Amino acid sequence: MSQKINVAIVGLGFGAEFIPIYQQHPNANMYAICQRTESKLNEVGDQYGIEVRYTSYDDLLNDPNVDAVHINSPIPNHAEQTLKALRAGKHVACTVPMATSVEDCIEIVKATKESGKKYMMMETVVYAREFLFVKELYEKGELGKVQFLKASHQQDMEGWPDYWPGLPPMHYATHCVGPVAGLLKLEAEYVSCFGSGTISEDLAKIHNSPFAVESAHIKFKDSDLSAYVYRSLFDVARQYRESFEVYGSKKSFEWPLIEGEDPVIHTAKKPEHEIAEKVATPDYAHYLPEEIRHFTGKGVYNLDENAHLSFVQGGGHGGSHPHLAHEFITALIEDREPFPNAWQSANWTSVGILAHESALQGGALIQLPDFKELA
């Protein structure tokens, strides 16, 4: 494949992590960058030798050379910038979550269909090496029949800027919803969630969200499976953890309790003391073009001096960044839906939004819209 996609990156904090990946991908041209702060824009542009630079997002979208935008702006801007890009005839990759309301998720799915352009939510966990390892076990039949899925995302967000303080835990839930839905490509049908504990009053009043922890059950459509996910952001003592666990009839996979330790495989029908064993999770760089394989093992943006906090706390996001970029670019080249596509991204994002609504209603069952029907 000799075709190249002209990519523009919007937001150069976490977003700059992806610049060298696109620069070295054989089918991408790292064409333009966009940042409101001109000094930051020029600093990054000079560092990576990118000539086309915009402080205005609208000016970027008016550039006919831009094929696709990769949005890494603050969460409140995701929906507006995505809709503008799709309606301007650009393909869109966007960091999580897709939007902050179910209504905006619906609009993005509709806009993707109307524009004929591709949308991909850049959910790191479904391209992390641990998820790829479990996916491989599943596809080889080693798990047997999958019986239950579970995930968590716990993080201390004290000191994070802007919109983070007091955020309802489930409003940023895709890191745990994505893997439980994504392994078997299931569609969440309805959700029930409970809040537990309370955060400090100064944080709680920002979003009128008192809960320290929110825990939800998800029922999947046309499946006998359900999943359990839980989230915490403030006032809970826990090392950073994005966990994903799957229980099968033959084998089960459990995430380590402590960062840096190996996960555990449980194998049925063995002597009790042999059922559980620790396993090393392999890297999956061989799935990638040779030019970007080395990015699974390290960060790329100011690695030593100023690594982005989400990358440091997130354990490097499981080597997912080059996989995400590769999936987006190859989906465009091959004219196919990326994973996750617009309706899947809307489904995963809305699980969290509606889970919080359920928690405020004492655990009420709340149905999700049928995003697949809209796509």
Kindly estimate the percentage of residues that lie in beta strands according to DSSP.
15-25%
Number of separate helices = 12
Largest sheet: 9 strands, mixed
Number of strands: 15
| Gyration radius, in Å | 20 Å
Overall shape: it is: globular
Question: What structural class do the secondary elements suggest?
Answer: alpha/beta
Q: How far apart are the termini?
A: 28 Å
| Biggest sheet: strand arrangement | 14-13-12-11-7-10-9-8-15
Uncertain segments are 308-315
Order of helices and strands: EHEHEHEHEHEHEHEHEEEEEEHHHEH
Percent helix, as a range, is 25-40%
Q: What's the rounded overall pLDDT mean? A: 94
Protein name: Gfo/Idh/MocA family oxidoreductase
Organism: Dyadobacter fanqingshengii
InterPro entries: Gfo/Idh/MocA-like_OxRdtase_N (IPR000683), Gfo/Idh/MocA_Oxidoreductase (IPR052515), NAD(P)-bd_dom_sf (IPR036291)
Domain Gfo/Idh/MocA-like oxidoreductase N-terminal: 5-121
